[in-house]
Write a structure and sequence with these properties.
heterodimer, A: 261 residues, alpha/beta, 7 helices, 13 strands, globular, B: 320 residues, 9-stranded mixed beta sheet, 5-stranded parallel beta sheet, 9 helices, binds flavin-adenine dinucleotide
């Protein structure tokens, strides 16, 4: 039987660019380059490795995001995923994590899955909770923040490195997994992969297709509200000294002045 | 007065400092009711009471240790239903955030993660967050349900405030999902004897410039002279010079100590994401153009192999 793997990938503003909030206090996507969240490349990579080790597997990548988010899907397809689902609807603008997880849960259910793989966190919202919410909504085990993952005989196992301990965990499929950037370097798309990606199917879904109402998602349906977003004032220029043999002692002097010593 | 649920982060009854910070924040909103789960839960009551917990709800069961996350969600939900709080505060650890988010969904509330401050507001608690590697500061609210907010360590002072801290048993019935993800083995992290990275008042970090595992004792000696925790950049971690658990940054630990000292670290955006909210930032780097210098309160352009040992020696001398 075929193993159906769904990978959730997010399209995010480039972290090395000038990220901003728009006037309505949502993410400014207009003036910043977007890309597949780097941490989701690790999820695609693990999906590809799990699929390689399975008798028969199909990888679908899913994104919830605006028109441009197709770029994230293309990248994942060029890495080797089989097909893509793009959930796009004007009413999704401004969704919080509750809205986003609702839409993803519906999209994943519609696609059909045995295993859902996510990144550990997006590089913009960086909440790191979406995979747990997806598991809660789908009613399947969460096997999250894995730095090692394997699937065999309908069971997913992995290592979760926590604050105070490192744990080996396991769950029966279907399950939601998230993987960290310690799980293994993601491959670069090959030229062949990039060419092949152009022919792979990308299905578009809107809220109607998922049986959702506009007021369940987007700014209208958000359960959180951002009241203000202010650019942090540039740090006042600090003192910078060149070490000419006394740098360590000068620094000690500063730390004494600041009462750290 | 209105009650605020605080999920206690503890190891076998030893309450970790971020929980005491949560109690300080909780008192701004109402009367803190602490929820302590797992082995040693009852032993937490003393210190929680000294820090303002009016009640301590405890539950222990093998499920908390043997299965991932969900048993704690079941228990926190039981406490939520028993108390009817006006807010729920949880420490922003990986597990804390997952527990908080799942609870929020179950009780129909919004969730805010990684707050760096929480204040009472006219429409309920207002959370401050640092966005986009701390280049923005946002103020947010939960607009539906009972606010569930996770708070980063070092976001508030620990303030003693005597309260009853009466221990009450919490009865929890686990749902079918609770046993979904089994923990088949657990290897506790070895203690270095140094403060916890996320809780430390001072963090001393080394990067690629440290140039080898054999040189990290230089960074450790500086840390020890200041009673600090040791951190590392991803470049140093990926090279195998220091354990991943010490990585500071977007995919490592997020720290906001009183003092952060970066040695041989360039200050890439992903590193800044984990340390930019530090109160005082100091860098030692031989490249005057390194982006880390844009953040510093004090910077030394120089070779860390000369500057760090001199600094350490000077500190040790002054301490006498
Ligand atoms: C600076 C900032 C702060 C925010 N704070 C909050 C907040 O406190 N509360 C709140 O409710 N919302 C918040 N949001 C909104 C929230 O980030 C989005 O709703 C988001 O899509 C879900 O959260 P995340 O991206 O942080 O997900 P994470 O939990 O960090 O993402 C983990 C994984 O989930 C998957 N994933 C996430 N989003 C998508 C997507 N759109 N399509 C496909 N896969 C996806 C990816 O695999 C990703 O690696 C914030 C957004 C920003 C930009
Ligand atoms: C998705 C993603 C997530 C990431 N997450 C993280 C993260 O969590 N944490 C993190 O740190 N990085 C992270 N990174 C990596 C990050 O982009 C940088 O590559 C990394 O921070 C660089 O580490 P560094 O500053 O130690 O090394 P470099 O950038 O190589 O800088 C080394 C510095 O040391 C200085 N130096 C060299 N020799 C000496 C000397 N003798 N004395 C003084 N100075 C010297 C050099 O001038 C230079 O400035 C992430 C990247 C990605 C793409």
């Amino acid at each position: 039987m075929s193993l159906r793997i769904v990978v959730c990938v997010k399209y995010v503003p480039d972290a090395t660019g000038d990220r901003r909030f728009a006037d309505d206090l949502t993410l400014d996507r207009e003036d910043v380059d977007g890309l597949l969240s780097e941490l989701d490349e690790y999820a695609v990579e693990q999906a590809l490795q799990i699929a390689d080790g399975a008798d028969d597997a199909e990888i679908t990548v899913v994104t919830v995001g605006p028109e441009d988010a197709k770029d994230a899907l293309r990248k994942a397809l060029s890495m080797g995923a089989d097909r893509a689902v793009h959930v796009e609807d004007d009413d999704l603008h401004g969704s919080d994590v509750m809205g986003t997880s609702l839409v993803l849960a519906k999209a994943v259910e519609k696609t059909g899955y045995d295993l859902v793989i996510c990144g550990m966190a997006s590089t913009d919202g960086v909440m790191g909770v979406l995979p747990a919410l997806l598991a809660e909504r789908l009613g399947v085990p969460q096997v999250t923040l894995l730095s090692e993952v394997a699937v065999a005989g309908g069971v997913v196992t992995g290592r979760r490195d926590g604050d105070t301990a490192s744990e080996q965990v396991e769950a029966s499929l279907p399950a939601v997994v998230s993987v960290t950037d310690q799980s293994g370097e993601a491959r670069y798309p090959s030229f062949k992969g990039i060419m092949a990606a152009k022919k792979k199917p990308v299905e578009s879904l809107d809220l109607d297709d998922l049986g959702l109402d506009a007021d369940e998602v987007g700014l209208a349906g958000a359960w959180t509200a951002v009241d203000s977003a202010t650019e942090r004032p540039a740090r006042t220029a600090g003192t910078i000294v060149k070490d000419e043999g006394e740098g360590g002692r000068q620094l000690a002097e500063f730390l004494v002045g600041q009462k750290f010593i | 007065m209105a009650e605020v649920l605080v999920l206690v982060d503890h190891v076998d009854g030893a309450v970790r400092k971020p929980t005491l910070e949560l109690l300080t924040l909780a008192r701004r909103i109402g009367d803190p009711v602490a929820v302590a789960l797992g082995a040693g839960a009852g032993a937490t009551a003393g210190v929680l009471g000294e820090h303002g917990a009016v009640r301590v709800l405890t539950a222990d069961a093998p499920e908390f240790a043997e299965y991932l996350v969900v048993p704690k969600v079941d228990a926190l939900q039981a406490a939520f239903e028993a108390v009817s709080p006006v807010a729920v505060l949880v420490v922003s650890s990986a597990e804390g955030k997952e527990v908080a988010a799942r609870l929020a969904l179950r009780v129909g509330s919004g969730v805010i993660t990684d707050a760096t401050d929480v204040e009472a507001g006219e429409q309920g608690p207002v959370a401050t967050q640092a966005a986009f590697a701390a280049s923005y500061t946002t103020r947010s609210r939960v607009s539906r349900g009972v606010p569930v907010i996770t708070v980063k360590p070092n976001s508030a002072p620990v303030e003693p405030a005597a309260a009853a801290g009466a221990v009450e048993g919490l009865s929890v019935s686990f749902g079918a999902a609770a046993t979904g993800t089994k923990v088949t083995s657990r290897t506790p992290r070895e203690s270095t004897g140094r403060p916890e990275l996320t809780e430390a008042a001072i963090v001393v970090s080394g990067g690629r410039g440290v140039n080898g595992a054999e040189n990290f004792p230089l960074i450790e000696a500086l840390a020890d002279s200041l009673g600090a925790a040791v951190g590392a950049s991803r470049a140093a971690v990926d090279a195998g010079w220091y354990p991943h658990t010490s990585q500071v940054g977007q995919t490592g630990k997020s720290v906001s100590p009183q003092l952060y000292i970066a040695s041989g670290i360039s200050g890439a955006i992903q590193h800044r994401a984990g340390m930019q909210t530090s109160k005082t930032i100091v860098a030692i780097n031989k490249d005057a153009e390194a982006p880390i210098f844009e953040l510093v309160d004090y910077g030394v352009v120089g070779d860390l192999f000369a500057v760090v040992p001199q600094l350490t020696e000077e500190i040790n001398t002054r301490k006498g």
